[in-house]
Amino acid sequence: MIDDQTVDYQRLYDLLAGSDSVVVVCHDNPDPDSLSSALALSVVAEQLGVGTVTIAYGGAISHQQNRAMVNALDIGLTPITECTLADFALVAFVDHSIPGRNNSVDEEMTPDIVIDHHPSEEVNGQYVDHRPNVGATATILTRYLQAYELELDERLATALLFGIHRETLSFTRETTAAEHAAASYLHSLADHSLIESLSNSVFTCETLSGIGDAIANREVRGSCLVSSLGRIHERDILPQAADYLLKLEGVSTTVVFGIVDDNIQLSARTNNSQLHIGELLKNTFDEDGSAGGHHDMAGGQIPLGLLGPVDEDDEVATDLLNQSVKKRLFSALDSWAES
């Protein structure tokens, strides 16, 4: 079971029950773990009598599975650009913890509530439940539903179970006993046919083309692969391409990056147990933007302005930028291998 002996469930209960409004903020481009966790916390807030509950997100919902999940489970979302956080009595972060890092929140603000499983330093808030030893934030929110003995319907059970499935790659990545315990609790109520349907959501044409570009543009050195997609519109192509390329024989680490709007977005994967890819990305790029993540999966973004302006039609400048990012990545990977 999840290790929650030091968690003060009553404190969050009292905080929510005494509030008239809360905005639950997902990380940018929210995935199923973030979406299901936000839905769960919003349900907890509603059942505790909070009058106004809003789920906000930054970025876009471009991954075909994420769009299908939002539509099938009727998850009400509001772009963060249409919210004024100061209008809410409480601001809650789920599946992320640091303002301005992988979220569209001013880095000077401090959230009231943080519930997250990603490795991070100096997490602040009135109420913080930070468990990097757990495989999914949806697992933690499932425990809150159990602790409060609140009603759990098919919609929420399906969302949470799908969130755990996706975050752990069907219980094959960073899975702990807590995920199995949560899945056992959710299993009887969840709609398994819908979970199967969501898991088999079809690729968009751009996603398929992006994965093809990642294959064509790959550069491999030893067991490490780096690929650039140039300018793309769907950020979620990157993690899908990084996952796909990790299947290449002889490759144990992949990093795929592309230009999305005014940022370079990166997604990395590794099955090398000796490499902490989140720490490697953080050490390489965090001073320029924000980067980091887990032992075997990570991401980051760098504002284009820090590396020089790149006109959308300037192929030479884009190529130079691609070579610069690749050089930094391979240099970092080489340094790690030599250490």
From TrEMBL:
Signal peptide positions on this chain: none
MF annotations from Gene Ontology: nucleic acid binding
Domain DHHA1: 223-313
InterPro entries given in the database record: DDH_dom (IPR001667), DHH_sf (IPR038763), DHHA1_dom (IPR003156), Oligoribo/pAp-PDE_c-di-AMP_PDE (IPR051319)
Domain DDH: 22-164
Record protein name field: Phosphoesterase
Origin species: Halorubrum saccharovorum
